[in-house]
Design brief:
CATH topology of the largest domain: Rossmann fold
Order of helices and strands: HHHEHHEEEHEHHEEHHHHEEHH
Strand content: 5-15%
CATH superfamily of the largest domain: NADH:ubiquinone oxidoreductase-like, 20kDa subunit
Number of strands: 9
CATH class of the largest domain: Alpha Beta
Radius of gyration: 19 Å
Largest sheet: 5 strands, parallel
Number of domains: 2
Helix content: 40-55%
CATH architecture of the largest domain: 3-Layer(aba) Sandwich
Structural class: alpha/beta
């Protein structure tokens, strides 16, 4: 059974694509209400490992975008900062924020338990997906000097999809959950493809896009960089390695980084 079929079976949703709704920016209230009325609410958990907590702030504090989603579309069944529940329950989707500290036994055990009880595990944000700054810039760790090795969660457990960003935007969180509930695997496919992509850097733009003559000078990479590590020079991205935290968001946001060759050939009749 393929990953896509397994996700559909676990979540119990039938694909019901809505092309017009998907074209809207963000999760509109009309779409959210429609989905909430027609579907059973998925059980979602949030797990915080080693990170700055920026991802859950993006999830919980942007009420103008996410209020309908958090209250009407899903049941939050686990999360140290969201729910008064200290035992990991069965859930449809686990959003795991932060990298894993190999010296932290509690984090290791919690991650393993979440993988066992969640139908779908999502690397939520760049620390979880790639390790980001926790992996490369530890900053001394004065409180816990033994905590020195941080890895992406995919190094230890099977990850089904990844929502990139440092932190992810409220829009991508909302649209991802809406797509999941609708069974819209076309929308989720890039995130499924990112599940095993644990090494990322601004250098990827040079190696995999510019050097391959794919760059169209759109500037999306520079606009998406939260640390201002990228500038556009003569129509091409230029990386300041001292500012780069290796979150990978610039490469992920590049429209040339995900190239659905089979679909393009199908559309062109090749």
């Amino acid at each position: 059974m393929s990953l896509i079929d397994r996700i559909k079976q676990f979540l119990g949703f039938k694909a019901k694509p809505d092309k017009e709704a998907k074209a809207d920016e963000g999760a509109s209230k009309k779409e959210v209400k429609k989905v909430a009325e027609e579907k059973a609410k998925p059980r979602i958990g949030y797990i915080h490992l080693s990170g700055c907590t920026g991802d859950v702030i993006s999830l919980s504090e942007n009420y103008d975008i996410l209020a309908e989603l958090l209250t009407n579309m899903v049941d939050i069944v686990y999360g140290q900062t969201l729910v008064d529940n200290w035992e990991v329950p069965e859930m449809d989707l686990a959003l795991v924020e932060g990298s894993v500290c190999l010296q932290d036994e509690h984090s290791l055990q919690e991650l393993m338990e979440v993988r066992e009880k969640a139908a779908m595990v999502c690397a939520f944000g760049s620390c979880s997906a790639t390790g980001c700054f926790t992996r490369y810039s530890r900053g001394g760790q004065q409180a816990q000097p033994a905590h020195e090795s941080f890895v992406p969660i995919a190094d230890l457990v099977k990850v089904d999809c990844a929502i990139p960003g440092c932190p992810p935007t409220p829009e991508i969180i909302a649209k991802t959950v809406v797509a999941l509930i609708n069974g819209d695997m076309d929308y989720l496919q890039p995130m499924i493809d990112l599940a095993g992509y644990t090494e990322a850097c601004g250098c990827d733009l040079q190696l995999k896009v510019v050097n391959q003559a794919l760059c169209i000078a759109c500037g999306t990479c520079a606009m998406s960089c939260q640390t201002r590590a990228l500038d556009m020079t003569n129509g091409r991205p230029e990386l300041n390695e001292d500012r780069c935290v290796k979150c990978g968001i610039c490469y992920v946001q590049c429209p040339r980084s995900w190239w659905p060759e089979e679909q393009i050939k199908k559309d062109l009749g090749l």
